Amino acid sequence: DTAVSQTPKYLVTQMGNDKSIKCEQNLGHDTMYWYKQDSKKFLKIMFSYNNKELIINETVPNRFSPKSPDKAHLNLHINSLELGDSAVYFCASSQDLVGLAEQYFGPGTRLTVT
Amino acid sequence: GENVEQHPSTLSVQEGDSAVIKCTYSDSASNYFPWYKQELGKRPQLIIDIRSNVGEKKDQRIAVTLNKTAKHFSLHITETQPEDSAVYFCAAGNTGGFKTIFGAGTRLFVKA
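Structure tokens for the assembled complex are given below, as produced in the milestone run.
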């Protein structure tokens, strides 16, 4: 009965590799997000999607490519991983596109780039 | 651009005392102000929110106040308990922005 799920929970990889993180929500929400949380705990939005369409791209390097096969899924693919990509990545969803509703977060994926 | 400032970054209180976390926002169009709690190693979860047509909202030991003129909003936790220890994030959202901007977080320690 998990509302927002992410896989994997932990990801350790070397610089230069390509990796993907998957996210699924079973809440029937139309809007999904990706956030990056660095070591100082700052939560920064990366992307938001509404009904599979990209709404926000917060000047994220184009090595990061989100993909939404349907409105219940928003996956994040990262090419040519760099040390600075190490962080916890949270997927989230909300009922409301326009930033006026509760966001439900996934459990996070801790990415470590060595 | 839009910005949400949050203070203090760290707050330590004795069990039973009150804790207050303050935020200011820059976008005058903001009209939704949620607060999220993130326990160690866990996901952020909404604990309370307030909309711009309301000045104050309370839920048991937690209350939020909003001053739209000054662009300030605050979280008040009374009778703090060790399980209140966590990182708290304020945030501001608005209809036109399509997103919620988060503050930098406050790490609250409640000492037993």
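The two ends of chain A are 34 Å apart (CA to CA). The longest strand of chain A covers residues 43-50. Further analysis is deferred to the final report.
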